[in-house]
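hey m, so remember when u said the tokens were messed up on ur end? i reran from scratch. heres the input so u can diff it against urs
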Amino acid sequence: MQNLDELFDVVDEQDRVIGRQPRREVHRLGLRHRAIHVLVFNARGEVYLQKRSMTKDTFPGAWDSSCSGHVDAGEDYDATTVRELREEIGLVVAAAPARLFRIAACDDTGQEFVWVYRLAHEGPMQPNPAEVERGEWFTPAHVTRWIAERPTEFARAFRLIWKMHMTR
């Protein structure tokens, strides 16, 4: 279950910190905050996607990026990426992988400013059952087709991230 009392930095339209609020209030009030997403690709060009745990407070049971998470109050995007890779899928990295692109806070991201990262890794992953129901490798063509055919099976932010990734 999510810790609804964890603190997030609340940010303005320029992604500057203007305050701190508990997770539950940030989501309830639709306040701007920060998150990261990581796309993990193997040498065959497949992307690892996770199926979110049913205990998640947003998009339970939906397919999502390889790894994603909120930036905690006082934390930066890169530190969050290193932490979330370890916590969600058991990957220990010395430093954040390459940043791909940034998404401004919008309805599709749940008012999150998002940095998207790319990591080359062969696995194996060790999904945390509190966060991730399971994970699997897919070809990009399969993911694109799947989203087109059954978009509701994916977290809303991931649909935007995938579209942006595929058009880069």
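this time it looks ok to me. The first helix runs from residue 23 to 29. if urs says something different then somethings off w ur setup not the seq
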